[in-house]
Amino acid sequence: MDLQRCSVFAILCQRGIPEQYTVHITCETLKGLCYLHSKQFIHRDIKCENLLIGWNGEVKLADFGLATKTTRRNRERLGTSKWMAPEVIREQYYDEKIDMWSLGITIIEMMDRVPPHYLIRDETELFKAILSEPSPTFTYSLPTMYMRGLVAWLLDEQPSTRPHAVDVLQEIEAHVQSKLLQCSTSQELARFVNHVLSSATS
Which value, to the nearest 10 degrees, does the dihedral of the CA atoms of residues 39, 44, 50, 52 take? Predict the structure, then answer.
């Protein structure tokens, strides 16, 4: 893999990510997931630490150490706890839809700077909260209603009605085209990252 500039998480160490850049990062992540899922793989660890930003604003998935084939009957509780889909926590059989749940959590993480249930340290308490409370939403940021709707779609507790990556990508692109969502370009993302990281070292 080419040397990337930083992870998305590195930006969060300095500030939350405005919606237009979050939309761009999400679209590029979805393109990666569309490819991965088409090859019958599940990533199983989507989060900001595993999304890399290049010097020209390109976005790439990283850390495939937990990836598995969809042709297997997967039910292992693997991944990072706060990003786990309910069916993973319950150790039920799951498929690539778990990556969609994790992406929904990651979108909240990008804008809020922290994932839902950030303050819960005990894993048993965390899992109880994920399984018993309504699907999480934004706490510290002010996304548009369309971004809120997108995240609610991704965080559908029922895997059968949770969308596929290709469906979400098409929906976002349609919203961007109709100007219901703003989406930065790669060049604009690169300038934003440069500004954030330069400010951190000055």
Answer: 20
